[in-house]
Every structure is written in structure tokens, then in C-alpha cells.
């Protein structure tokens, strides 16, 4: 009887505070903010860690991307009876041969096309200006024409100012450029070494890391790591495969319609396609520029090529390669791209989606664990009448 009265007396506190999802959520948020505040006060302790990752970050990222591309091939060769070390060496030789072919055949062609575009760029600008003048003369713009001319003049002045500032910044930042080149050279030298050991012993990495944890947490932690690895592998393989297919389709399409610099524009489109949703449209900016300079017929041809490429990519290539593996809403992807691009630049735009997918796996498992432990999200059982 006393227990019942005590329970009735304290039930309001349990109902409105201890058993309230809102209160518990606010407490969790408050604790996270306090942790972040403490980290900001002792951020100097983590500077050596940041410097370490600044040095090894690029080769680790390169090695990780190549690992997810090459590991399925190594596994396949191992299943066929070839020892894993020999399979890795054989694949390395094939990759080096492919890179040598690209250096000998593709890169000189791209360099020649870029040099030709740079030499022809002033002529393209003059042609575009003449076409704009013809349009303005043929159509009755009236006062709008003066506004457009003033805007164009301001744009040209802004571009000139930006060019001068960029030149000064380039001269002042020679030391930074040398440092960046040194980091790239170090990455190109160390990435193959890291890649070799990842391909050789990558399967042992997860169990090795989990072995440092308490016994009860090893199995769920390994499950989280496995899901993160699966998400990252699917995204990297899928995006690079789609990007390669997009590059090939654009190169073929631009070559058929006779657009200049087809190889360079196709490679650029494939690279920009690594940016979800926005990549193909960004790649079309220089294409439309060249098409407008060439003539209205070329604009129509380029539009047809773009429509065919988007249809094949959206209806065939992407569903077959990517599917819906990440289960991320397109609106969420847009917010992630905008936020990551604002904070980290082009690197954030390219790597924002896979890192968000990894964070989503971690948060979902933490929330699942919290719901099981707290018992706050269980539905109340209604008594039968």
C-alpha cells in the first residue's frame, strides 16, 4: 500500500521528466554541446593529430579509393587459385601498364586540346560578342540593351580585377604551391605501399581493431564497421563506374556531332559527375559555350547528346550500378553538398556524400542502442476492454 502511494506521488515526475522523450533529447543535446565546448578549450592538444592527418590524409584517401576498386578483382583472382600476393602484383602491373598507355595516348591529346582552346579563346570571345550584337540589333531590346551592355562591362571589369588579384596571390603563394606539390609527390609514392598492404591484409583490419574493445561490444561494433565498409565500397565503386560511363558516352557523342575538344570535355564531364546531381550540368557550361560559338545547329546537336546521355545514365547506368544503396533523399543530398562545399570546398563536395553515409550508419546504430536501453520509445500496451 505504501509503495502504491509512493508511486502515485512520484508518477508525475516520471511522466513529465524521466519518461519524456523531449527532456531526454534536450539533455543529450546539452551533453554533446558541453563536450564540444570542452574540446574547443583544449583544441591545441589535437594540433599534432591534425598535422599528422594533413600529411597522411591524401595518400590514405587515394589508397582507400583504389582499394575498393581493386579488391574485388584480387578476391576473384584468389578464388581462381592464384595466391593473393601474386594477384596483387599482377593487378599492379596491369594498372601501371594502363597508366603508361594513358600518359602516352590520352594525356598528350588532352594537353593539345587544352592548349588549342587557350589559343582560340580570344577568338571565341569575339565571336560570342559579335553574335550577341547581332541578336541585340535584330530584336527590339530598347532600354534593356543599355542595361545589358553596362552589366557586361562590369562583368569584364570584375574578371580583370579577379585576374590581377589571382596573379598577385599566385606570386605570393609560391611557397604554398611548392608545399602542395611536395605533398602530392609524397602521396603518389606512399599510396601504392599503403594500397599493397590494404589489399594483402585489409580483411584482418576490422577484427584487429575490434579486438581492443570489451568482449560484449565487439560483435555490434564489428557489425557497424561492416556496414560502413559496405556503404563506402558501394558508393566509391558505383560513382567511379558511372563517371567512367558518362565520360565515354560524352566523348562518343561529342565526336559524332563534330564538337571540338571532345576528349577533354568528356573527361571533364566524367570527373564532374562525381558531384551528384550537379556534375553533368556543370560539365555542360563549357560545352554550351563552344556550341554557341560554333552555331545554332551545334547547340541543337549538343542538346540531343545531353538528352540521350541523361536518359541512358538515369534509366540504365545509375540504377544498375548504384541502385538505391545509400538510401539518402535527394533533398538531403543537396543540403549535404551545399554545406560540405561551403566548409571544405571542392573536396567537401566530392567526399561529403560518402562521409554523410558513414555518419548515418553510426548515428542509426547509436539511436537503436539508445532505444533498446532507455525503453522510452516502446509503445504502451492498451488494456483489453
Descriptive report:
Belongs to the autoinducer-2 exporter (AI-2E) (TC 2.A.86) family. The chain crosses the membrane at residues 20-40, 52-70, 86-107, 174-199, 242-275, 328-359. This is AI-2E family transporter. Keywords: Cell membrane, Membrane, Transmembrane, Transmembrane helix, Transport. Its main location: membrane. This protein has 385 residues and is mainly α. The protein has a domain at 213-375. 86% of the residues lie in helices and 0% in strands. The chain is built from twelve helices and no strands. Helix 3 crosses helix 4, helix 7 (215-257) runs antiparallel to helix 10 (296-321) and helix 9 (279-294) packs antiparallel against helix 10 (296-321). The longest helix is centred in the N-terminal third of the chain and has 55 residues, at 84-138. The model is unreliable at 1-8 and 169-175 (pLDDT under 50).
Would you summarize the structure shown here?
The protein is mostly helical.
